[in-house]
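Example for reference:
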Amino acid sequence: MADLSAFPISRRWPAENPDILQLYSINSPNGVKASIMLEETGLPYEPHLVVIGDNESWTPEFLSLNPNGKIPAIIDPNGPDRKPLALFESGAILTYLADKTGMLLPEGARRYETLQWVFWQVGHIGPFFGQVGFFHKFAGRHWEDKRPLQRYADESKRLLNVLDNRLAGREWVMDDYTIADISLLGWVRNLITFYDAAELVDYAPMKNVQAWLERGLDRPAVQRGLKIPSKD
């Protein structure tokens, strides 16, 4: 049996089965990237709920794994060279799991083309959609100055148009379903449903994105991953 005692996070979130991959997360748009990927690949894993609303990601135990205090994070007891690997940042986790399983990340030039879309999501979609959420649904909605909301909404609309143009004539971002799609699905879904920002970002004309999102949400692994780990 694997020994995870060297990882302080395992004291706050003990592993029932330390021989399988440990996921520390919540089913937020960033968190579900890891859970959807794990469901798609079929890798055995044990999810641990990190309640970010209760600041659990800022506890010493969580910070020992991710000093940036953000979910998701993982420990793979069967990492490279058969040594445990602790990893944070959703893009890195997606890439690692794809390499570990040989799934959902093409080889050769297509690998780097796929990764550029993953990095595009991490660097643009996540930050801007998240700010739309803050200023449209959460505390920022009470701000009298609406210029920040408009700025983030305008940029989010532009980014959605980039995605819509990319999906013209394609079912998936890279033709085949890859980690590029997994990185994006939760964020687009969240923007339109949970943030209720469809009208704000002029979502109605973006038929390619709408069809892509529907295809993605129809996947059984996506449906499962969107609920893991959940407070409900």
Summary: The CA atoms of residues 28 and 96 lie 20 Å apart. The chain is about 45% helix and 10% strand. The chain has a mean pLDDT of 97.
